[in-house]
Amino acid sequence: MCLTRKIANFEDWSAKRLPAVFMIRTFLLIACLLTSVACRQRGGTPADANIVANAGNHSAETIRPDTVARPPLAFGHETWDFGTIPETGGPVVHVFRFTNSGTKPVVVERVGVTCGCMKPTFSQAPVLPGGSGEIGIAYDPADRPGAFDKAVYVYTDGSRMMPLRIRGSVAARPETAADRFPVEFGGGIRLSVKEVNFRMVEQRHDRRLTLRCLNTSPYEVRLRAEFAEPLPFLRAEAPAVLAPGAEGEIAFICDLSAAEVWGTFVDSCYLTVSGRRLEGAVVVRGTGIGDLAELREMPRGKRPQAEIAESLLDFGTCAADGTAECRFTLENKGGSPLRIYAVKYPEGVTGQIAAGGVDGRTAGSGNYFVHVELLVSDALSPLCDLRVRGRFE
Q1: Residue 126, domain member (yes or no)
Q2: In this structure, what CATH number is given to the domain that contains residue 162?
Q3: Is 45 contained in some domain?
Q4: 285 plus 312 within the same structural domain
Q5: pTM over the 0.85 mark
Q6: Is the dihedral of CA 343, 348, 350, 356 positive or negative?
Q7: What domain range includes position 95?
Q8: Beta-strand relationship, 276-289 and 195-202
Q9: If I label 117, which of 9, 84, 108, 153 is the partner at 20 to 30 A Cα–Cα?
């Protein structure tokens, strides 16, 4: 049987519950994406007195400043305002000077800071009664425009703590071409982004998105944008000529006014510069959904509403030549019939909700994670993403 994209048999279906069974023999292996979150940040944030980085061993600890005894250190001032400093001027340093006002020698064991943008310097030599010492704090304003207010904690022998503060404002550096066009694409061309996402595009509608480009070469260049696998509903329009140092726009148009497209689509667009095709590509993606104009005009309580109680199912472990079965239940919680426009199955997955299926093949061993896309007439959730995972051995 062949898989049909539009499920005519279900367009006027008004049942409240629909069990969907998916037979899985072959899956697309999808790599897990691990996102590394950088600690670097732009813009000042209020200091958090409970999170302190140990400047000596770079560990972190949680403290309550109001419960720690203060050492006998008399500082000339406990807060320093740098005023306004330039972002590109490099680190600024302030030295806090103190006197040992106690009757015994004091040792500054460590200085805790609340941000990696600060670097303390100090001596661990004993400070005799009446003697003095210094604690230097360097603040690096790079990539941190805006106001800042940071806490510093001075620890002496006996776990006594003295809080200090630095504050100020960082004047943002002038925006450069690299800031406005961060993607170096080759051939002297820089782009504002390297991915164009139409997100959801309704049938019988079109959408136009643009990205900005810059010619950094000393020569005039001729541009052409071409898709790797041309789709009839996608096109790109690039400026024919870009003068040296000139900026331009590359337009991407997704036109579903004539073509019928359901579910996720992805294509790659290559740039040709003066006859030479560049290696990199702009990724263009989006999702075709139903025309929801009439649904939006309906009172919310009368609209159809799709609900799947559990959209992620785990079929566990199966034999490599076996078949795994998962069952989803789709409910219409709205006040009018729910139409199922289309169902998109990945290769090797079949389902009773479709009018046909695809021939299954042995999956082989390994972990598998697949998506089944269900396109419905729900103005708030027109795409139901059903996820299935498991392992074949």
Answers
A1: yes
A2: 2.60.40.10
A3: no
A4: no
A5: no
A6: positive
A7: 51-171
A8: parallel
A9: 108
Return the half-sphere exposure (C-beta side, CA atoms, 13 A cut-off) of residue 156. Answer: 21
- Exposed (0-12), middle (13-18) or buried (19+): which is 145, by Cβ within 10 Å? middle
Q: What is the mean pLDDT of each run of 10 residues along the chain (393 residues)?
A: 30 40 35 32 38 38 53 93 96 97 93 94 95 97 96 89 96 92 94 96 96 96 92 94 96 95 95 92 96 92 89 83 80 91 77 36 55 90 89 81
Q: Which two tokens stand for residue 35?
A: 């996102």
Q: What is the pLDDT of residue 344?
A: 86
H helix or E strand, kind and range, residue 316: strand 312-318
Structure tokens at 26: 């072959």
Distance CA 314, CA 363 (A): 16
CA distance readout (Å), 216 to 177, 189, 212, 270: 9, 6, 13, 18
The angle subtended at Cα 24 by Cα 20 and Cα 29, nearest 5°, is 120
Helix (H) or strand (E) holding 293: helix 293-297
Entry field: residues in the chain: 393
DSSP 3-state assignment of 351? strand
* pLDDT for residue 389: 86
